[in-house]
Specification:
This protein is α/β, with parallel strands linked by helices and 223 residues long. The strands form two sheets. Strands 2-3-1-4-5-6 form a six-stranded mixed β-sheet, with helices on both faces. Helix 5 links the parallel strand 5 and strand 6.
């Protein structure tokens, strides 16, 4: 009887130990099932937050071609979309992922009623892109005045001036734009680039934008 009692106690202890082990294993397993997705989500979220973002403010008079320029930076956009590109009435936003960072482009319409708000968006901007219609010589004085108003508001902000529509008749050359916009003194106080660009008539928009590959490289240097 004593032997049977000891054997029964031993079996009970073994069963209790086995039950505890199973409980711990199951508890660990279910915890992993519950928390693993959240941990994975947190890891992805942290990775996204660690990716640096740089804001590029795109300004210019109405009709300068700001929206078309942004389309030209978007991979895979068909050329036919240029025909549906309407003047921006308010704001236009686009993000472009590049190896170094994420470029957030904010375009603000160039109508007279919107220009007074331009300077409000300079403070958080890393680079200013100012688009000029090279073919509209009559508006170059106004384009110059608006540009220099922005330059006075942010004395050290890097600037890329994009002379657009170079394929149009009587378009001002880069040297003519440099003089008409009085950019000589500006280069002494900040980083400034003046580029010429035009949109091709066929093929993917990104490949038919002359000067935009260089433009993107310069942006990455400035941000």
């Amino acid at each position: 009887m004593v032997l049977l009692r000891h054997l029964s106690l031993a079996l009970s202890a073994a069963a209790a130990a086995l039950g505890s082990a199973l409980f711990i294993a199951l508890n660990f397993f279910y915890k992993r099932r519950v928390w693993s997705p959240q941990a994975e989500y947190c890891a992805i979220k942290e990775e996204e937050e660690e990716r640096e973002k740089r804001q590029v403010l795109v300004l210019g008079l109405d009709g300068a071609g700001k929206s078309s320029m942004l389309q030209g930076l978007t991979p895979g956009e068909p050329a036919a979309r240029r025909g549906r590109c309407r003047p921006t009435r308010g704001f236009n936003f686009m993000s472009l992922n590049v190896p170094a960072c994420q470029l957030d482009f904010l375009e603000i319409g160039g109508g007279e009623d919107l220009r007074r708000y331009w300077s409000d968006y300079l403070r958080k901007t890393h680079v200013l892109v100012y688009v000029v219609d090279s073919s509209d010589r009559s508006r170059l004085p106004l384009a110059k005045a608006e540009l220099h108003r922005l330059l006075r508001a942010e004395p050290q902000l890097p600037v890329v001036v994009l002379g657009n529509k170079q394929d149009k008749p009587d378009a001002a050359s880069v040297s003519e734009l440099h003089e008409a916009l009085s950019l000589g003194p500006v280069t002494q106080t900040r980083k400034l680039f003046l580029l010429a660009a035009q949109l091709g008539s066929d093929g993917p928009l990104r490949n038919s934008c002359r000067g935009l590959d260089t433009f993107q490289d310069i942006l990455l240097q400035l941000v």
